[in-house]
Amino acid sequence: MISFSSFYQQIADSNLQHWLEELPAILGKWQREHKHGNLPKWEKVLNKLHYPAPTTIDLFNGVQIGDGSQLTTGQAEKLKNLLGLFQPWRKGPFQIHGINIDTEWRSDWKWDRVKEHISPLENRTVLDVGCGSGYHMWRMLGAGAKRVVGIDPSPLFLCQFEAVKRLAGNEHPVHLLPLGIEELPPLDAFDTVFSMGVLYHRRSPIDHLLQLRDQLRMGGELVLETLVIDGDENAVLVPEDRYGKMNNVWFLPSVDALMLWLKKCDFTDIRCVDVDITSMAEQRSTQWMKNESLVDYLDPNDVSLTVEGYPAPKRATIIAIKNQPNHDLV
């Protein structure tokens, strides 16, 4: 069974220590509810990942763990087969002992668009909301973060993360907890909070922004990336049914509308640092993710539209600072 005890030990003497009052019970409930399904099978695969500690790790230029020189051909083939049991791999890529896990998303491209605009992460405590398998968490650690915590409720993403962490040596201060942000108490503790590719999946985007705010210390930085549309501060797309074949897309605001939402949620220094149309080179099917991908979500006769006729995916990155609430006195 996946254990969270090392995380509890690490935060016991940190500014996250008050989380221990609730976290063990929350995660204990999660473990009891996931005794069935695929999690036990994936945990058995994790227990087979006994490989030499890597002599080289590069988290600055990518996520590269080992260079392949430590494994025999047979060992490398066995490792590749084991990692293949965790498909589909959506966020990455990862290079592990010479094996290239070519994920659906080129998440390194997103990181390259973001990294030059954020406050330096050296010695920061960072939260990554909706972290997937944890690719960006490793890049945050490579950028000097003191501790990185990711949350994502998917058991598969947890197991993918645990596989990478065990192969990397396990001692790194990066942890994934299988939780949604609504399960977190207000911690007011993180220096930087990332929410990338999450907002449009939330039924109440304002509540999501307030939940992100509750995790930041005063003066902490929010890095928010989400789907947007063109338009003024009143422009918001609410898909009638599906968007890009996804049935869990609720609100796609314009950049100006999103910045107004952040202002109403007591953020300041709000700025849009990037707007990018998602390309079929950045999101595609691979040998590690064989399901449908972006090309299948777009109108084959007009790739500027989704198959439903909505504007094709465009993503904006907004950076904002948690400010002291400034509500009018009644």
Write the layout of secondary structure elements.
Layout: H1 5-11, H2 23-33, H3 39-46, E1 57-58, E2 64-65, H4 73-84, E3 91-92, E4 94-96, E5 99-101, E6 105-106, H5 107-115, E7 125-129, H6 135-142, E8 147-151, H7 155-168, E9 174-177, E10 190-196, H8 205-215, E11 216-227, E12 236-237, E13 252-253, H9 255-264, E14 267-277, H10 294-297, E15 298-299, E16 302-306, E17 314-322
Parallel strand pairs: 2-4, 3-6, 7-8, 7-10, 8-9, 10-11
Antiparallel strand pairs: 1-2, 4-5, 11-17, 12-13, 14-17, 15-16
Q: How would you describe this structure to a colleague?
A:
Helix content is 28%, strand content 24%. With 330 residues, the chain is an alpha/beta fold. The strands form five sheets. The protein has a seven-stranded mixed sheet, sandwiched between helices. The protein has a four-stranded mixed sheet with strand order 1-2-4-5. The longest helix has 14 residues, at 155-168. It is globular and about 60 Å long. It starts with a helix and ends in an 8-residue tail after the last strand. The relative contact order is 0.12.
Strand order of the largest sheet: 9-8-7-10-11-17-14
Mean residue pLDDT: 95
Alpha-carbon distance between the termini? 53 Å
Question: What is the percent of helical residues?
Answer: 25-40%
Weakly predicted, low-confidence segments: none
**Shape type:** globular
Number-wise, the strands total 17
Task: Specify the structural class.
Answer: alpha/beta
Strand share of the residues? 15-25%
Helical region count? 10
Secondary-structure element order, as H and E?
Answer: HHHEEHEEEEHEHEHEEHEEEHEHEEE
Biggest sheet descriptor: 7 strands, mixed
Radius of gyration: 20 Å
Keywords: Transferase, tRNA processing
Subunit structure: Homotetramer.
EC number: 2.5.1.-
Family: Belongs to the class I-like SAM-binding methyltransferase superfamily. CmoB family.
